[in-house]
Amino acid sequence: MNRKIPTVGFVSLGCPKATVDSEQILTRLKSEGYAISGSYQGADLVVVNTCGFIDAAVEESLDAIGEALAENGRVIVTGCLGAKGDIVRRTHPKVLAVTGPHAAQEVMAAVHEYLPPSHDPFVDLVPPQGIRLTPQHYAYLKISEGCNHRCTFCIIPSLRGDLVSRPIGEVMKEAEALVDAGVRELLVISQDTSAYGVDIKYRTGFWNGRPVKTRLFDLCQALGELGVWVRLHYVYPYPSVDALIPLMAEGRILPYLDVPFQHASPRILKLMKRPASSENNLDRIRAWRAVCPEITIRSTFITGFPGETEAEFEELLQFLEEAELDRVGVFAYSPVAGAAANELPGALPEEVREERRRRLMEFQEDISTRRLEAKIGRTIEVLVDEVDEEGAVARSAGDAPEIDGLVYVTDGQELEVGEFASVTVTDCDVHDLYAELAEA
Ligand code: SF4
How far is the centre of ligand 1, averaged over its atoms, from the C-alpha of 272 (Å)? Predict the structure, then answer.
């Protein structure tokens, strides 16, 4: 009974997709009887899940590996940086093993090799929803891995491979387990959510004995039956997305779309090789709003892509003026090692890329503020994230965790984390809303 339990430390870096990889590895570790340590010293070895997307992320990941080696000495590396040639081994030759992203199997094999599991039934207890790194009331639901596109600024397909959709029955089973465990908001993620099922020709799967196609519309319909918030990320503006908007208008899934447009100039979109680049996005946005006026549209853009002229940048500002998007994230173009866009002519100096990013942000601020001001006086539903003596910090249907704004409920001290509440909006700033509990 006094046998020492093999203990693993875990460092998780990177995007929500990497977080889901971490959760899967942690779940496997727990289910095999490993303990998880919150400190380097308490662990027999450390797994570092890395990000390799941009240079800053590479630096951060290499630093994290260095720290784990210095503090613990036995380190297994996984994640996107592991797929980037031999940079990890060159920088840190002492690591025990290196795998790429989405490699729970290989990580477990390495853990078994360097720290065999103890077969103790008393530590074999894992909650059915697995181990999660997000708060208890929301969870990411990864529906596929990889991507069939080849956007010229991106190296994700070379790191993660082509699209592989998870069977819909498996996704729904996971979603149900999460809801049973108290999750109130499911955030659907992948590299290209609209393409869900394309690789397996929308194969029919089964959920609770019922046939369901592996297709985004069918998935949204099924998720809409679970009685929790369902939020869609990384959706490209294909015509097939139009069919989802009535589900939003009927309240079955959240009226929220995260659509990474990246640019508005047809020439730049073509150079970027963006999915759905020939669609008329303004018409599509107008049509979505006609069906579901409540919809929140979030997007991201890149300024200073190689060859972008001042006129093309202004075309992007014009698009923003007309599209009136609710939430916008902007990145100055940053050359990622290995990306095809680095070979394009007309690379712009960093000051220009950065100056355009600043101009776009300032331009969008007025638009975002106007969209939020229109909510003042309205009563909306929010999900509570935190509570303290100053009130509650919550989010509305228009706010995804970590990337969008917040709703500060100034008299929400009695609310509970994970609770839905009805509030009346009293004020706003550029990103956030201020509200009070609505009259019963
Ligand atoms: S859609 Fe483009 S940006 Fe997104 S993962 Fe695929 S290649 Fe990269």
Answer: 10
